[in-house]
């Protein structure tokens, strides 16, 4: 393949990117998007604060711009994210208890129903575990509604959009030896054993010097896949530059390619200047839209599969 998407497609995988609606008028950005990627994630436009800014009033204008652009171009869409402790609208941030639980489930139901049949995979719940050595759930208003809030969200999503894959998505879950990774693994194992509807686990894969690509990444992805779920790399970016960065990208791609149930890779933006990171050069295209060494190493790794 001569593009990321066509190279990934040769092994039945997708290659995606996060997209921001306000960049769809940038011709350089759109040119790269249309050429290189076959999966799209809305960077912010499908989040709870964007889609339900006032309680019970749903707005899909910006999300639809992204979904329609993707579908008109023959690309698929990952839905991000139905339930999350962060990026909640103000009205939800101040809620608690059973009222919050009902509001969260209504949000999941409404958004998943609106997009029914159009989403490849939903990040149903995002970032529900704490960092550090405890393996505990992250404290949040949603967690305080009861430990079963995650499975309740998955059941609501399945009822609303039965053909979409339903994912749990998190960061710092790449290293198999970390407590957070083990805790997510045990949750997925428990969900599978009890019939809670979960189809996939997303690994955000935001890497930097303090959180490098682990040498056991393949082990992590394979162990999760062995639970009977697909795995996906959902928000990949790697701080750095040059051949060091290119080698790290290669390692991530090779880890996915080595796991048959690793169905695709999404990078979290197109050009370095599109990255959520305030400074740095973590993506595959430079700020002018030129291919970086990391791009070439990813393309070559995909083509070697
Ligand atoms: O659009 C407004 C603008 O009008 C306003 O003037 C400006 C002032 O702060 O804010 C702009 O919104 C910002 C938005 O990005 C668009 O740029 C928000 O403040 C800012 O919080 C938001 O950041 C996003 C962040 O999620 C929010 O949690 C990043 O773009 C987005 O890349 C990032 O993505 C997350 C994933 O969803 C989950 N995993 C981690 C990943 C990286 O943090």
Short description:
This protein has helices at 4-9, 27-36, 48-51, 61-72, 90-93, 97-114, 149-160, 179-194, 217-225, 242-257, 293-303, and strands at residues 14-19, 39-42, 76-84, 121-126, 165-170, 200-203, 206-207, 230-238, 262-267. With 305 residues, it is α/β, with parallel strands linked by helices.
Strand order of the largest sheet: 1-2-3-4-5-6-8-9
Distance between the termini: 11 Å
Rounded to the nearest angstrom, the radius of gyration is 18 Å
The major β-sheet equals:
8 strands, parallel, barrel
How much helix, percentage-wise, in residues?
A: 25-40%
Q: Mean of the pLDDT scores? A: 98
Unique bound compounds = ligand G3I
User: Which regions contain 5 or more consecutive residues with pLDDT less than 50?
Assistant: none
Amount of beta strand = 15-25%
Please give the number of β-strands.
Answer: 9
Order of helical and strand elements: HEHEHHEHHEHEHEEHEHEH
DSSP summary: helix tally: 11
Name the overall outline.
Answer: globular
Helices and strands: which structural class? alpha/beta
Architecture overview:
It is a single chain. By secondary structure, the chain is of the alpha/beta class. The chain has helices at 4-9, 27-36, 48-51, 61-72, 90-93, 97-114, 149-160, 179-194, 217-225, 242-257, 293-303, and strands spanning 14-19, 39-42, 76-84, 121-126, 165-170, 200-203, 206-207, 230-238, 262-267. The chain contains eleven helices and nine strands. Strands 1-2-3-4-5-6-8-9 form an eight-stranded parallel beta barrel, surrounded by five helices. Helix 6 (97-114) runs parallel beside helix 7 (149-160) and helix 9 runs parallel beside helix 10 (242-257). The relative contact order is 0.13. The structure holds ligand G3I. Ligand G3I is lined by residues 43-44, 86-87, 171, 204, 235, 276.
